[in-house]
Amino acid sequence: MRRKAMRIAIIGFGGVGRAFLRLLKDKKDELKEINPQVNYVIDYMGGIYDPEGIDIEKLADFSEKNRDITKYPIGGSPEITFDSMLANKDVDVVIEMTPTNKDTGEPGMTHIIKSLENGFHVVTSNKGPILLGYKKLKEIARKNNVQLGIGCTSGGALPTINAGIIDMAGSNILSIEGVLNGTTNFILNEMESTGVEYQEALKKAQQAGIAETDPTLDVEGWDTATKLLILTNVLMNEEKTLDDIKVEGITSIKVSDIQEAAENGQKYKLVGKTVRKEDKLEMSVRLEKLNPDNPLYGVDGKNKAVRYTSDTLGDLTIIGGASGVTPAAASILRDLINIYMGCKFV
Amino acid sequence: MRRKAMRIAIIGFGGVGRAFLRLLKDKKDELKEINPQVNYVIDYMGGIYDPEGIDIEKLADFSEKNRDITKYPIGGSPEITFDSMLANKDVDVVIEMTPTNKDTGEPGMTHIIKSLENGFHVVTSNKGPILLGYKKLKEIARKNNVQLGIGCTSGGALPTINAGIIDMAGSNILSIEGVLNGTTNFILNEMESTGVEYQEALKKAQQAGIAETDPTLDVEGWDTATKLLILTNVLMNEEKTLDDIKVEGITSIKVSDIQEAAENGQKYKLVGKTVRKEDKLEMSVRLEKLNPDNPLYGVDGKNKAVRYTSDTLGDLTIIGGASGVTPAAASILRDLINIYMGCKFV
User: Fold this and answer.
1) What's the sign of the alpha-carbon dihedral A168, A172, A174, A180?
2) A81 plus A196 within the same structural domain
3) How many domains does chain B contain in total?
């Protein structure tokens, strides 16, 4: 008996999208039960549509060499758009991977809303819509009895959302504390281990492809703030904005500060933290000196970590999270599988 | 509209069972959606049955003072047994919390099998049946389209099973490495921080109520081996037994060993480890000298931790897990909620 396929639309076909396709190809045998069938791949130029399922191997090969998917010989066309998918409705899950816009959330916001309203599950890597309107999106998902997987938006391979929802089920999360940005972690490590000042360490990180040419988002703390905001709103049922977080970066730290801390057995980390104090939520991103008994102390290099404290399940720290497009794609696949398996995230 | 209740039978009413009842009482408002209704509480002397749901507050008060639940005024009787529950069938989930027997698994094994066969979900804290027959139990659960929650059997509040199944979904676990026993961790810490020898540190652990009067299971490594075996069989789909694990304890370590390691910046931990080498699985429990860059290095005192490596999601280390009956009960509640929410563990 052939199992019913899980019909997928991939919206946004950049690095993570292509890695996701490769993953579906490489894990074909393991995914037999889920039987994923990609009916659509769509990006801003147009898309590919095959109601019988796009040949993943062929498309993976094609897209290694050719970025214009509208040229794909079987079903590729500038006419295939998000709206044509909505009109056809032959989809079970929409994977939304368009570029993040933190001011408007578009085009992801519209994609996600319309997909949920049409009864499609959504899994997304797009931080913008989650930052700006998670509560609203959650309501829409619930109303339409579909799921919204957002694991990739806060930590990628590090299962911050899973851990907060599934692993802490039945307990209340009282605080969130995380080392959530690999770039600043790398820079601080570099300063400590080689004794170079910030600018030099940043340059090294840029040469290693870890920091971007414009590193502002990372080094000024905004990437950490974004992830902290998503975790706080999702796991503590809040509707905070970036304005509610006191954000400081790492740009003014000196090697002498780091060395002084090291002499006391301490380490500086850029920590994002949400703590409920009486009835107020305090949210901050700033350099903190951690003692060795803090489980975040040892989170080095490109690793990330988050620690939750709770009322009945004690503390939980999760450390890990490989970086890059394949682990990010694997976190999309994780959400997809868990939704297929019946887990409820909203 | 009143929601349909989730009807529960509590089988085995020791410390964790009573803590679980208190948790249901304390979290009544939070659990409104699930609407748990305890129809049975049964132990070896008999039980309590109320088809409309036992008054949890009253029973919690009663059982603080009185261990013989058959004396409970509303529905308590020596005639109420596991079999009477099977005959009535007015249950959705059986919480199996009878004492562990690692040789026969009984009476838990029979309870779990019959419950699953009768179409009840099962959540258990009982290591015996899981150790001896997880694969068989999983098959029975699948065949009867019900779930089997075993989170409490390996790490309690530390979500080792959740993390391995849900947080690593879509990736293959290549190795498992854990500091899974709080007692040995405490003893090794004590030796390091105060410079006393093993016997002295053990005595302290016993006085603090952390080590048992007969500490063999902990200090000889068998508790760690048991948890490692469960994780290996469940997460790597194996059918190993304790005989397949090379087990060494901590009883012969000297303070001088610990100090020598400390001078090199290393720490001794009792590590349970499963690694796939070529086509063979190597399983061991033994003292290992860990470097500071190992995420298990900082797992101190009563904390526990496990680290998974995977093919596509990188490494994941989880650290935490409060000890005691309330966190253990909270891990039972976690499984219950996740099963209610639709997560599939088998």
Assistant:
1) positive
2) no
3) 2
For the stretch B98-147, pLDDT in tens is 999 999 999 999 999 999 999 999 999 999 999 999 999 999 999 999 99
Pairwise CB contact (< 8 Å): B300 & A293: yes
- The candidate with the shortest Cα–Cα distance to A202, out of A211, A214, A192, is A211
Q: Which two tokens stand for residue B11?
A: 């089988």
Q: Does B316 touch chain A (CB under 8 A)?
A: yes
Provide the shortest C-alpha distance from residue A346 to chain B (in Å).
Answer: 10
Range of the domain at B49: 6-157+325-341
Establish whether this prediction's ipTM goes over 0.90.
yes
The CA-CA-CA angle for residues A48, A49, A53, to 5°, reads 115
Average pLDDT over residues A322-342: 94
Q: Which residues of A touch B336 (CB under 8 A)?
A: 170
Chain A residue with CA closest to B29: the answer is A170
B270 within 8 A of B287, measured Cβ to Cβ: yes
Q: Looking at the structure, tell me whether residues B153 and B185 fall in a common domain.
A: no
Active-site residue flag, B227: yes
Q: Are strands B148-149 and B173-179 parallel, antiparallel or unpaired?
A: unpaired
Non-local CB neighbours of A27 within 8 Å, separated by 6+ positions? A333, B170, B312
CA distance, residue B208 to nearest chain A CA (Å): 20
Name the 3-class secondary structure at B232. helix
Burial (CB < 10 A; 0-12, 13-18, 19+), residue A237, is exposed
Which of A295, A318, A336 is opposite residue B298, by nearest beta carbon? A295
